[in-house]
Design brief:
- The protein has 238 residues and is an alpha+beta fold.
- It has three domains: 52 residues, Roll (Structural Genomics Hypothetical 15.5 Kd Protein In mrcA-pckA Intergenic Region, Chain A), CATH 3.10.290.10; 91 residues, Pseudouridine synthase I, catalytic domain, N-terminal subdomain (Alpha-Beta Plaits, 2-Layer Sandwich), CATH 3.30.70; 79 residues, 2-Layer Sandwich (Alpha-Beta Plaits).
- Helix content is 24%, strand content 26%.
- It is built from seven helices and 13 strands.
- The strands form two sheets. Strands 5, 6, 7, 8, 9, 10, 11, 12 and 13 form a nine-stranded mixed beta sheet that branches.
- The longest helix has 11 residues.
- It is elongated.
- The two termini are 28 Å apart.
- The model has no long low-confidence stretch (mean pLDDT 94).
- It binds uracil.
- The site of uracil has 8 residues, from helix 6.
Length: 238
Amino acid sequence: MRIDKLLANIGYGSRKEVKKMLKAGQVAVNEELVKDGKQHVNPKEDRILVHGEEVHYREFIYLMMNKPPGVISATEDLREETVIDLLAHEHAVFEPFPVGRLDKDTEGLLLLTNDGKLSHRLLSPKKHVPKTYFAVIEGEVTAADIEAFRRGVTLDDGYVTKPGELVIVKSGLHSDIELTITEGKFHQVKRMFAAVGKRVVYLKRLSMGPLQLDEELELGEYRELLPKELELLMDQES
Ligand code: URA
């Protein structure tokens, strides 16, 4: 990897600022000054010093976001604000992407990473990673709905869902529920409720596999995963 890209990636500044540092002789690789940003280095093997201090490179970043409504789960879009637009430069330089999608109006837990392998495994239909959502449903959710979801419901395209675990938190004209599913079909929660004649008016993801939404995070805020969370995620995905 180019030394200028590497240093910019881990927050030493923009490529332009890094270029200046290099020119000023502030960067050494294996005890030799490097002035050319194009020089390739191997972050795992080479000893890189900036201002005499060793640089610890890391390849991957893992962020937990409390996705706000109104932004889309994509890396770029011409018209809409994306979850990547909410990231600080120091995190965006790692080029993370959302692991799976939440609808524009859905809130809650979104994992962002540049670790393609982890993402792939978490999203693989073979892994059946459970995802739990909190939702407000128009109308009364009943025991019959619990039973229907447990058996699997037929979506508008004829697909029969895998069993979902529905818990009624509060029933009434509007019902609060929690639903755990192990698949990630397009608009799945909304379509499952549509299959039983009901409408989701609010949707928030609470968990994905072992990862629970940190309720301290305000909408739109994010943080790096804690070592323990990362460990749990890595353990269950292997
Ligand atoms: N199911 C939905 O309908 N929407 C989401 O954003 C996530 C799951």
